[in-house]
Design a protein that fits this description.
Mean pLDDT: 79
Strand content: 15-25%
Structural class: alpha+beta
Helix content: 55-70%
Number of helices: 7
Order of helices and strands: HHHHHHEEEEEEEEEEEEEH
Number of strands: 13
Radius of gyration: 41 Å
Largest sheet: 8 strands, antiparallel
């Protein structure tokens, strides 16, 4: 009797289907896991490095902020060191001017740091804006993608297996789904990294602004230190010179310093004269004064605090020849070259403080004393009106001013003859 055919699968077909299903699932799992891992590592390594670099920058800026506190001048220690010099006015002035110079340099350095920090802030603000824009773009893109996936639905492995026309077709479908899954994962990782980078940029910007504020505060502190030392110097010089017990000693010291100043100037003039002789012997041109009027040597000034000529010294109380004109002016006021010429000295002495001496030719020189800063050096050629220094109170000075002297053929002459008709 012939058996009727049955629709139930025999054991062989079931076994073959099971093997096929296991193989498909294994391939799908391994493929998806492998692709996702490779995608995540390759894409996230750059983002991870960027984040690590930003964290490193923030760490460096924290160290920079801490170092600001250590860089300030110790005014108490400076005064303690100066106290030991007070018995000798010349040594005291030199030591105090050295401290003033260090503070001036520190202020200049801090101001450069402020400019650099402001530039850094502009860069970080631009970087933050770009990072926020990137984060928003990724957020919108991810939202659109999620909506599309939700609307289209995600096929299951079983659906793809049952609908596949062949094993090759099934594998192609699996590859598509795996890439979509890897894309979804990478999109999320990119968005998460973008958010983290935005926060780091915000942290860096806030830290840079804190450093900027503290640097500005440091400048104000150093400025107060500077002004306090200048005031102390003024008081100590006046006290020393007006003390009846020091009177004769102070007068002798002052006269010795003036003689030393004169000798220093004459040596410079002699060196220039010798150099001009050599140039003339070689038939080379030498600097000549064309007779023009000088430009006023200060950008601004309030008054003539001491004029040229014989006068009673304000603290020593003795008759003394004043070899220039003192122009009272705020510290830092620009000092101009009165006329074209060559710088023959840009140096320091205990009497003149920081000074510049310019040769204008034909035995005519101008000298600018007590500067807080010098912007030229020996050998520089200057033009009329060029900024060569800044007003200060270095040397034997009791307040910010410019002592302006003119010498002609080895002797001091009145500056007014060159400053006005």
């Amino acid at each position: 009797m012939k058996k009727k055919p049955t629709n139930r699968p025999n054991r062989f077909h079931i076994a073959r289907f099971s093997v096929f299903l296991c193989l498909v699932l294994a391939v799908a799992f391994c493929w998806q896991a492998g692709d996702a891992a490779m995608s995540t590592v390759s894409a996230s390594s750059i983002t991870s490095d960027s984040i690590k670099e930003k964290e490193k920058q923030i760490s460096q800026k924290k160290e920079e902020k801490e170092s600001l506190k250590d860089g300030l001048s110790d005014l108490r220690e400076i005064k303690k060191e100066l106290e030991a010099q007070k018995e000798n006015l010349k040594s005291y002035v030199e030591a105090l001017d050295s401290s003033l110079k260090q503070i001036e340099e520190k202020i200049a350095e801090l101001k450069r740091e402020i400019e650099a920090k402001e530039d850094e802030i502009h860069v970080t603000e631009a970087e933050l804006a770009a990072a926020v824009e990137r984060e928003e773009t990724q957020r919108v893109n991810m939202g659109v993608h999620i909506r599309l996936v939700y609307e289209s639905g995600t096929p299951s492995i079983v659906d793809m297996m049952l609908k596949a026309e062949s094993f090759g077709s099934f594998l192609n479908n699996m590859e598509y789904v795996q890439k979509m899954a890897a894309y979804d994962q990478q999109m999320f990782e990119d968005y998460r990294a973008a958010r983290e980078y935005v926060q780091l940029c915000k942290d860096e910007l806030e830290l840079e602004k804190e450093i900027l504020d503290e640097t500005k505060a440091s400048v104000e502190t150093e400025q107060r230190n500077l002004e306090e030392l200048i005031e102390q110097k003024r008081n100590d010089i006046v006290s020393y010179e007006t003390d009846i017990h020091n009177k004769e000693k102070a007068i002798r010291e002052f006269e010795e310093e003036i003689r030393a100043q004169e000798a220093e100037i004459k040596l410079l003039e002699a060196a220039v004269a010798e150099e001009k002789k050599k140039l003339l012997a070689e038939n080379r041109d030498v600097l000549k004064y064309d007779g023009g009027m000088f430009k006023f040597p200060l950008a601004t000034y309030t008054r003539v605090s001491d004029d040229y000529g014989n006068r009673i010294h304000p603290t020593l109380g003795v008759q003394q020849f004043h070899n220039g004109v003192d122009f009272a002016a705020p510290k830092g006021t620009a000092i101009y070259a009165a006329y074209d010429g060559e710088v023959v000295a840009a140096s320091y002495s205990a009497t003149m403080g920081n000074y510049v001496m310019i040769d204008h030719g034909d035995g005519l020189y101008t000298i600018y004393m007590h500067a807080s800063a010098l912007y030229v050096q020996k050998g520089d050629m200057t033009v009329k009106g060029e900024t060569i220094a800044a007003v200060g109170s270095t040397g034997r000075s009791t307040g910010p001013h410019l002592h302006f002297s003119v010498r002609l053929n080895g002797s001091y002459v009145s500056p007014w003859g060159y400053l006005k008709q």
